[in-house]
Write a structure and sequence with these properties.
Length: 145
Protein backbone atom coordinates (compact mmCIF):
# COMPACT_ATOMS: atom_id res chain seq x y z
CA UNK A 1 0.00 0.00 0.00
CA UNK A 2 1.18 3.44 -0.99
CA UNK A 3 0.09 6.48 0.95
CA UNK A 4 0.61 10.14 0.05
CA UNK A 5 0.98 12.54 2.98
CA UNK A 6 0.35 16.19 2.11
CA UNK A 7 1.16 19.13 4.35
CA UNK A 8 0.11 22.70 3.65
CA UNK A 9 1.49 26.19 4.11
CA UNK A 10 3.83 27.17 6.93
CA UNK A 11 4.09 23.67 8.38
CA UNK A 12 7.73 23.83 7.22
CA UNK A 13 8.15 26.36 10.09
CA UNK A 14 7.30 23.83 12.80
CA UNK A 15 9.53 24.26 15.82
CA UNK A 16 10.62 27.71 14.72
CA UNK A 17 7.64 29.84 15.89
CA UNK A 18 4.34 29.38 17.75
CA UNK A 19 5.85 26.53 19.78
CA UNK A 20 3.03 26.92 22.33
CA UNK A 21 0.53 25.80 19.71
CA UNK A 22 2.49 23.48 17.43
CA UNK A 23 5.25 22.19 19.70
CA UNK A 24 9.04 22.24 19.74
CA UNK A 25 9.74 19.67 17.05
CA UNK A 26 10.71 20.61 13.50
CA UNK A 27 9.20 19.74 10.14
CA UNK A 28 12.06 17.29 9.56
CA UNK A 29 11.12 15.64 12.87
CA UNK A 30 7.54 15.35 11.62
CA UNK A 31 8.65 13.80 8.34
CA UNK A 32 10.81 11.27 10.22
CA UNK A 33 7.88 10.49 12.56
CA UNK A 34 5.56 9.87 9.59
CA UNK A 35 8.13 7.65 7.84
CA UNK A 36 8.63 5.55 10.95
CA UNK A 37 4.87 5.28 11.64
CA UNK A 38 4.37 4.09 8.06
CA UNK A 39 7.24 1.61 8.27
CA UNK A 40 5.79 0.17 11.52
CA UNK A 41 2.45 -0.23 9.74
CA UNK A 42 4.16 -1.87 6.76
CA UNK A 43 3.15 0.90 4.38
CA UNK A 44 5.09 2.99 1.92
CA UNK A 45 4.62 6.79 2.21
CA UNK A 46 5.68 9.80 0.24
CA UNK A 47 5.52 13.14 2.03
CA UNK A 48 5.04 16.48 0.28
CA UNK A 49 4.81 19.95 1.81
CA UNK A 50 3.96 23.11 -0.09
CA UNK A 51 3.06 26.69 0.67
CA UNK A 52 1.12 26.86 -2.61
CA UNK A 53 -2.50 25.83 -3.07
CA UNK A 54 -2.05 24.86 -6.74
CA UNK A 55 0.94 22.66 -5.95
CA UNK A 56 -1.18 20.75 -3.44
CA UNK A 57 -4.00 20.45 -6.00
CA UNK A 58 -1.49 19.15 -8.58
CA UNK A 59 -0.21 16.50 -6.13
CA UNK A 60 -3.76 15.35 -5.33
CA UNK A 61 -4.56 15.03 -9.05
CA UNK A 62 -1.31 13.14 -9.69
CA UNK A 63 -2.09 10.71 -6.84
CA UNK A 64 -4.70 8.90 -8.91
CA UNK A 65 -3.39 5.48 -9.96
CA UNK A 66 -0.21 5.94 -7.91
CA UNK A 67 -1.41 5.98 -4.28
CA UNK A 68 -4.05 4.01 -2.42
CA UNK A 69 -4.93 6.83 -0.04
CA UNK A 70 -4.10 10.33 1.13
CA UNK A 71 -3.35 11.80 4.55
CA UNK A 72 -3.71 15.57 4.40
CA UNK A 73 -3.09 18.50 6.70
CA UNK A 74 -3.99 21.40 4.41
CA UNK A 75 -3.01 23.89 7.18
CA UNK A 76 -4.67 27.28 6.56
CA UNK A 77 -6.08 26.06 3.23
CA UNK A 78 -8.30 23.78 5.31
CA UNK A 79 -10.51 26.77 6.01
CA UNK A 80 -10.45 28.43 2.59
CA UNK A 81 -9.76 26.01 -0.24
CA UNK A 82 -12.63 24.72 -2.31
CA UNK A 83 -9.97 23.83 -4.92
CA UNK A 84 -8.42 21.27 -2.55
CA UNK A 85 -11.89 19.96 -1.65
CA UNK A 86 -12.76 19.59 -5.35
CA UNK A 87 -9.44 17.84 -6.10
CA UNK A 88 -9.99 15.34 -3.26
CA UNK A 89 -13.51 14.67 -4.52
CA UNK A 90 -12.28 14.36 -8.11
CA UNK A 91 -9.68 11.68 -7.42
CA UNK A 92 -12.03 9.92 -5.00
CA UNK A 93 -9.18 8.26 -3.09
CA UNK A 94 -9.79 7.62 0.61
CA UNK A 95 -8.45 10.67 2.41
CA UNK A 96 -7.90 11.33 6.11
CA UNK A 97 -7.54 14.84 7.55
CA UNK A 98 -5.02 15.66 10.27
CA UNK A 99 -4.54 18.80 12.37
CA UNK A 100 -1.79 19.12 14.93
CA UNK A 101 -3.74 21.60 17.04
CA UNK A 102 -7.31 21.32 18.27
CA UNK A 103 -8.91 23.62 15.71
CA UNK A 104 -12.32 23.10 17.35
CA UNK A 105 -11.05 25.17 20.29
CA UNK A 106 -9.47 27.94 18.24
CA UNK A 107 -10.72 30.99 16.33
CA UNK A 108 -14.13 31.04 14.60
CA UNK A 109 -12.46 31.20 11.16
CA UNK A 110 -10.92 27.77 11.82
CA UNK A 111 -14.30 26.14 12.46
CA UNK A 112 -14.95 25.20 8.86
CA UNK A 113 -12.92 22.51 7.09
CA UNK A 114 -13.55 22.30 3.36
CA UNK A 115 -11.01 19.48 2.87
CA UNK A 116 -12.64 17.61 5.74
CA UNK A 117 -15.84 17.39 3.70
CA UNK A 118 -14.04 14.98 1.33
CA UNK A 119 -12.32 12.98 4.09
CA UNK A 120 -13.48 9.73 5.66
CA UNK A 121 -12.01 10.64 9.06
CA UNK A 122 -10.26 13.49 10.91
CA UNK A 123 -7.63 13.36 13.66
CA UNK A 124 -7.50 16.71 15.40
CA UNK A 125 -5.43 18.06 18.27
CA UNK A 126 -3.24 14.99 18.73
CA UNK A 127 0.03 16.54 17.52
CA UNK A 128 2.33 14.23 15.54
CA UNK A 129 0.38 11.22 16.83
CA UNK A 130 -2.55 12.25 14.63
CA UNK A 131 -0.52 11.30 11.55
CA UNK A 132 0.16 7.82 12.95
CA UNK A 133 -3.54 7.39 13.72
CA UNK A 134 -4.44 8.58 10.21
CA UNK A 135 -2.03 6.08 8.62
CA UNK A 136 -3.38 3.22 10.75
CA UNK A 137 -6.96 4.23 10.00
CA UNK A 138 -6.28 4.32 6.26
CA UNK A 139 -4.59 0.92 6.44
CA UNK A 140 -7.62 -0.56 8.20
CA UNK A 141 -9.96 1.08 5.71
CA UNK A 142 -7.98 -0.22 2.73
CA UNK A 143 -7.94 -3.71 4.21
CA UNK A 144 -11.73 -3.54 4.47
CA UNK A 145 -11.82 -3.39 8.26
O1 LIG B 1 -3.30 22.44 13.61
C1 LIG B 1 -2.98 22.28 12.42
O2 LIG B 1 -2.35 21.31 12.02
C2 LIG B 1 -3.31 23.38 11.42
O3 LIG B 1 -3.62 22.75 10.17
C3 LIG B 1 -2.08 24.24 11.30
C4 LIG B 1 -2.27 25.45 10.40
C5 LIG B 1 -3.51 26.23 10.79
O4 LIG B 1 -3.75 27.28 9.85
C6 LIG B 1 -4.74 25.35 10.85
O5 LIG B 1 -5.85 26.12 11.28
C7 LIG B 1 -4.53 24.21 11.82
C8 LIG B 1 -1.06 26.39 10.49
C9 LIG B 1 0.24 25.73 10.20
C10 LIG B 1 1.29 26.74 10.47
O6 LIG B 1 2.28 26.14 11.25
C11 LIG B 1 3.17 26.97 11.84
C12 LIG B 1 4.22 26.35 12.48
C13 LIG B 1 5.15 27.08 13.14
C14 LIG B 1 5.07 28.46 13.14
C15 LIG B 1 4.03 29.08 12.49
C16 LIG B 1 3.09 28.33 11.83
Amino acid sequence: MNILVLNGPNLNLLGVREKGIYGERSYDDLAAFIQSAAAEAGLQVDIFQSNHEGALVDKIQQALGVYDGIVINPAAYTHTSIAILDALKAVNLPAVEVHLSDVTRREPFRQVSYAGMACIKSFIGMGFEGYRQAILFLKGHLQGR
